[in-house]
Design a protein that fits this description.
Layout lengths: L1 E5 L9 H5 L4 E3 L5 E3 L3 E2 L4 H10 L5 E3 L1
Antiparallel strand pairs: 1-4, 1-5, 2-3
Bound molecules: iron/sulfur cluster.
The site of iron/sulfur cluster has 14 residues, from helix 1.
Protein name: Ferredoxin
InterPro entries: Fe-S_cluster_ET
Organism: Paenarthrobacter nicotinovorans
Length: about 60
């Protein structure tokens, strides 16, 4: 499993990550980001890397 980290201090809740991995990231009705999963399976590494690169705020990382 790969741990997914979001720095909510950086996040501006633009929704890019939620569009790409909706089972992991979700924008709530109040406009805030909620992380639905703290880990993803190893076989989703490429998807996670894409989300990390696409986050315009550099708020997502893995460990
Ligand atoms: S893509 Fe980045 S800035 Fe946008 S909602 Fe996701 S974590 Fe926040």
């Amino acid at each position: 499993m790969i741990k997914v980290n979001v720095d909510l201090q950086r996040c501006d809740a633009n929704g890019t990550c939620a569009a790409l991995m909706p089972d992991v990231f979700q924008i709530e009705k109040d406009g805030t980001l909620v992380q639905l999963a703290s880990e993803v399976q190893d076989d989703r590494e490429n998807d996670l890397e894409e989300v990390i690169l696409c986050c315009p705020m550099g708020a997502i990382s893995r460990s």
